[in-house]
Specification:
Helix content: 25-40%
Strand order of the largest sheet: 1-2-3-4-5
Oligomer: single chain
Shape: globular
Order of helices and strands: HEEEHHEE
Number of strands: 5
Radius of gyration: 14 Å
Largest sheet: 5 strands, mixed
Strand content: 25-35%
Number of helices: 3
Length: about 120
């Protein structure tokens, strides 16, 4: 149980860092940790007419980042994004699923349009 709480806290720290990084790049954060029947989206962000549904993964080492995201996890985020689209998107908006990878001592990595399904 203690490890689960520690991982949860680390995840929240990563999501906060990712949200600030996106803000610095001109994005507006619309929501954090949105749960749906299809899954959870860590961040929902808008820049112009683009809405990004963002999966954030924080790991202890850069090597662990290589295995932090897989097709199954991306499919869940994409399904949740489809569910949430009407809530956050306006007429004419585009949407995509992004991934942000974070590890201590490494530059934050933003993978745009990570899910092409």
């Amino acid at each position: 149980m203690r490890d689960r709480r520690k991982a949860e806290k680390a995840g929240r720290v990563g999501e906060t860092a990712a949200a600030w990084w996106l803000r610095l790049k001109g994005w507006r954060i619309l929501a954090r940790r949105v749960k749906t029947p299809a899954g959870e989206v860590d961040l929902v962000a808008r820049k112009g007419n683009l809405v990004a549904f963002v999966e954030v993964k924080r790991r202890r080492t850069g090597a662990e980042l290589d295995f932090a995201i897989d097709e199954y996890r991306l499919a869940r985020v994409a399904a949740a994004a489809e569910y949430l689209g009407p809530r956050y998107m306006e007429s004419g908006d585009d949407m995509r699923v992004d991934v942000i990878l974070i590890a201590p001592g490494r530059a934050l990595r933003h993978i745009e349009n990570a899910w092409i399904g």
